[in-house]
Protein: Prefoldin subunit 4
Organism: Anaeramoeba ignava
Amino acid sequence: MKTAFDKEVDVTFEDQESINEFGKLNLRFHELKTEITNYTNELQNLDDCQTEMILFDEDQPVLVLVSDSFLSLDKQMAEELIETKIQKITKNKDTLSEELNKIEERMDVLKKLLYAKFGKSINLDD
Protein backbone atom coordinates (compact mmCIF):
# COMPACT_ATOMS: atom_id res chain seq x y z
CA MET A 1 0.00 0.00 0.00
CA LYS A 2 1.46 3.33 -1.02
CA THR A 3 0.88 6.55 0.85
CA ALA A 4 0.99 10.06 -0.55
CA PHE A 5 4.63 10.26 0.53
CA ASP A 6 5.58 7.12 -1.43
CA LYS A 7 4.07 8.31 -4.69
CA GLU A 8 6.62 9.69 -7.16
CA VAL A 9 5.41 12.75 -9.01
CA ASP A 10 7.36 14.27 -11.86
CA VAL A 11 8.03 17.97 -11.49
CA THR A 12 7.51 19.76 -14.77
CA PHE A 13 8.99 23.10 -15.74
CA GLU A 14 5.57 24.71 -15.17
CA ASP A 15 5.38 23.14 -11.70
CA GLN A 16 8.80 24.51 -10.85
CA GLU A 17 7.77 27.96 -12.07
CA SER A 18 4.64 27.80 -9.89
CA ILE A 19 6.73 26.76 -6.87
CA ASN A 20 9.18 29.60 -7.52
CA GLU A 21 6.34 32.09 -7.95
CA PHE A 22 4.81 30.93 -4.69
CA GLY A 23 8.15 31.37 -2.92
CA LYS A 24 8.56 34.91 -4.24
CA LEU A 25 4.98 35.80 -3.34
CA ASN A 26 5.40 34.33 0.13
CA LEU A 27 8.51 36.45 0.72
CA ARG A 28 6.72 39.60 -0.46
CA PHE A 29 3.68 38.65 1.65
CA HIS A 30 5.77 38.63 4.83
CA GLU A 31 7.55 41.86 3.87
CA LEU A 32 4.19 43.57 3.35
CA LYS A 33 2.82 42.30 6.66
CA THR A 34 5.86 43.78 8.43
CA GLU A 35 5.50 47.11 6.62
CA ILE A 36 1.78 47.27 7.40
CA THR A 37 2.49 46.55 11.07
CA ASN A 38 5.07 49.34 11.09
CA TYR A 39 2.56 51.75 9.52
CA THR A 40 -0.07 50.72 12.08
CA ASN A 41 2.36 51.42 14.92
CA GLU A 42 3.31 54.77 13.40
CA LEU A 43 -0.36 55.73 13.04
CA GLN A 44 -0.93 54.82 16.69
CA ASN A 45 2.01 57.02 17.71
CA LEU A 46 0.65 59.92 15.67
CA ASP A 47 -2.79 59.43 17.19
CA ASP A 48 -1.23 59.52 20.66
CA CYS A 49 0.60 62.69 19.65
CA GLN A 50 -2.65 64.32 18.54
CA THR A 51 -4.23 63.41 21.86
CA GLU A 52 -1.32 64.89 23.80
CA MET A 53 -1.45 68.09 21.77
CA ILE A 54 -4.96 68.76 23.05
CA LEU A 55 -3.34 69.53 26.40
CA PHE A 56 -1.07 72.20 24.91
CA ASP A 57 -1.92 75.89 25.16
CA GLU A 58 -2.49 77.69 21.86
CA ASP A 59 0.52 79.95 22.36
CA GLN A 60 2.83 77.17 23.61
CA PRO A 61 5.41 76.10 20.99
CA VAL A 62 5.52 72.44 20.01
CA LEU A 63 8.85 70.70 19.51
CA VAL A 64 8.81 68.41 16.48
CA LEU A 65 11.58 65.92 15.78
CA VAL A 66 12.95 66.35 12.26
CA SER A 67 15.81 63.99 11.48
CA ASP A 68 18.26 64.54 14.36
CA SER A 69 16.99 67.96 15.46
CA PHE A 70 13.95 69.45 17.10
CA LEU A 71 12.02 72.16 15.33
CA SER A 72 9.81 74.60 17.24
CA LEU A 73 6.39 75.08 15.60
CA ASP A 74 3.20 76.73 16.71
CA LYS A 75 0.40 74.37 17.72
CA GLN A 76 -1.64 74.83 14.53
CA MET A 77 1.32 74.07 12.24
CA ALA A 78 2.22 71.01 14.30
CA GLU A 79 -1.38 69.75 14.11
CA GLU A 80 -1.41 70.25 10.33
CA LEU A 81 1.92 68.42 10.03
CA ILE A 82 0.60 65.48 12.03
CA GLU A 83 -2.63 65.35 10.03
CA THR A 84 -0.67 65.38 6.76
CA LYS A 85 1.53 62.54 8.01
CA ILE A 86 -1.52 60.53 9.09
CA GLN A 87 -3.12 60.93 5.65
CA LYS A 88 0.09 59.94 3.86
CA ILE A 89 0.71 56.90 6.05
CA THR A 90 -2.93 55.79 5.81
CA LYS A 91 -2.77 56.02 2.01
CA ASN A 92 0.47 54.00 1.92
CA LYS A 93 -0.94 51.42 4.33
CA ASP A 94 -4.10 51.04 2.23
CA THR A 95 -2.02 50.57 -0.93
CA LEU A 96 0.08 47.88 0.74
CA SER A 97 -3.05 46.18 2.10
CA GLU A 98 -4.50 45.99 -1.42
CA GLU A 99 -1.26 44.47 -2.70
CA LEU A 100 -1.26 42.02 0.21
CA ASN A 101 -4.80 40.89 -0.64
CA LYS A 102 -3.89 40.31 -4.30
CA ILE A 103 -0.81 38.33 -3.30
CA GLU A 104 -2.84 36.26 -0.84
CA GLU A 105 -5.40 35.44 -3.55
CA ARG A 106 -2.67 34.36 -5.99
CA MET A 107 -0.95 32.28 -3.31
CA ASP A 108 -4.24 30.48 -2.59
CA VAL A 109 -4.61 29.62 -6.29
CA LEU A 110 -1.04 28.32 -6.44
CA LYS A 111 -1.48 26.33 -3.21
CA LYS A 112 -4.56 24.57 -4.55
CA LEU A 113 -2.82 23.81 -7.83
CA LEU A 114 0.36 22.50 -6.22
CA TYR A 115 -1.34 20.53 -3.44
CA ALA A 116 -3.63 18.93 -6.04
CA LYS A 117 -0.60 17.63 -7.90
CA PHE A 118 1.89 16.94 -5.10
CA GLY A 119 -0.36 16.26 -2.12
CA LYS A 120 1.49 16.06 1.19
CA SER A 121 4.88 15.76 -0.49
CA ILE A 122 5.06 19.56 -0.77
CA ASN A 123 4.87 22.00 2.12
CA LEU A 124 3.62 25.48 1.29
CA ASP A 125 2.73 26.60 4.81
CA ASP A 126 4.80 28.98 6.90
Notes: The longest strand covers residues 62-66. Residues 75-118 form the longest helix (44 residues). The radius of gyration is 24 Å. The chain has one domain: 13-116.
